[in-house]
Model the fold of this input.
Amino acid sequence: MTTSAAAAPSVGLTWQPLARPVASPVFVLYCYFLIDFFLRLSQRIPGYGSLRPTLVLVGLLTILALAQGERLKALAQQPPVRAVLLLVAYIIVSLPLVEWPGSVIRENIQGFVKAVVFIFFTALFVDTDRRLKITVFLFMGLQAVRVLEPLYLYFATGRLGGYTYAGGEFAGRLNGAPADVVNANGLGFVIVTTLGFMHFLLMASPSRLVRLVYLLGLLPTFLYALVLTSSRGAFITAVVLLGFIFWQSRYKALLAVIAVAIAVGGWFQMSDFNRDRYLSLVGMGTQEESVEGRFDLMMKEFELGFYRPIVGHGVGTTAEAKVNQLGGTGQASHNLYGQLLIETGLIGFAIFMTFIWRNYRLLQYNLRRFRELLQEGGEVSSFQIRLNMALLAVFWIYAVYSLNYFGLSQEYWYLFGGLCVAFARSVSRSERALDDGETTRPLSA
Done:
């Protein structure tokens, strides 16, 4: 290998995976944790919620993680994990200095803990190439269920689940399923995230059948669900995803023609309300005031963050800070970056942004290594290339949608970081295998 270890990010360079089968009880428990969390089984199964299953699973997986002392120490050396550990330490140390420490302890810290554990569980328990593939497809499948279930209910019963008032009228918007916790904007976020994974993992699949199912079935279905959400933030991130796909594509002219055809066809399928809503993004239509209101709210959140600029008001206290500092009703943040300033101050903001940047660096490093390996005559697994591109696409989806969505105590950035660390270790294992003389073996098991 021509690239020295010193020039590479430290992720994966000292990690030794355990020689365990795929069906390890710990990994199975982790997968069940994902299923329980994303499908909200406690809301679906009578009596199950009284057992506090999510809290119990977090406790069990934490105990199992702490039992793996040496592996846990190695994990703590990985740059994204170090950034999250620093964030957790900072939140603990600064707790006496924030505006409302009592609210943090009584009401908000549990949600933060449930979110932040995703990076540790994913990075620690997804420790083989096959487990990485299972985890990625399980996550993608669970998000697909969250999209298809409310869409099925809409076709079967006419249920949209949500509405908005704009332009002098109420209009329905597709929300998540009754058991889910996402509104129309959150569902739009789930749709675009899932498409980011699907496009690179399914559209570029070696199987023609998989490609046809995605192109003729899943893609139009998910785009139709996206229109039903009437989420302008999700629409913008869909444009970001399309731009990323266009930038990466070798068939730009063909892709442009397909995109225009889909846009024209979709436009004529939209209701007058949705057309008016999307036109408001470019200063047209009757809902322009709501766009300006959202922008003004974003600016107020940044201003609110500078009421206590050093350590902030405390984790989860954005709504409380809005009531006490700005007056009016308490609302959750509509901007992750503003939320970071409000709740953790400039110090916490810098730490979280460092965490995001380190994930991006890992993905860029993987890309450089793949190119170098191909130039050296080595082999690179199709799945690894596709997964790296999917993660890069989702990175930009998250980075842009975070302008319109909160996330400090949400799981999506932490799970993303865990996948990046687990994937970087997969690439590192493949590099070591090639260094040991297995030159004919592709970069994936």
